[in-house]
What does this fold into?
Amino acid sequence: MPVPRLCLSHDVIARTAAVRRRRCGTRWLPPPANWQEIIRRTWPALIRHPNWRVPGGWCDLMLAMADHLEGRQITIIEAFEDLVMGRLQVVHTWRRGVVQDDESNVIIHYYESLSASTCRECGDPGEPVRRGTGRLATMRVLCEQHRYGDVGV
It folds into this structure.
């Protein structure tokens, strides 16, 4: 039976917060330098052809998503930061001979949506900030500290 979307959005937020609490405890710690390798080793069936360009502030989000999708017949091909929208984009495919699972699509969508309000540098709550002008303009999600500081901007 499919999970109602409201419950799923709460589950996505709770899973991400739990991953962060396990990793950091009560104080903020930067993501480990090899966090992408940790995901690849922990969920090898989920991530076969890793091509990742995801900022470190979203590592807890990615760890929670990989855990949430564990056991599903899906493979993540690519994950990157969309510089036009300033949010996570996940490209995925279904394993051969498997019928698409709509719930997996919805789960991925919720994690992508959560990235639109999560600082790309530290994982704290953030807001989209436009950098540059014209065709070179990019959108980045930054918390107040990274928006006004010189870190990661």
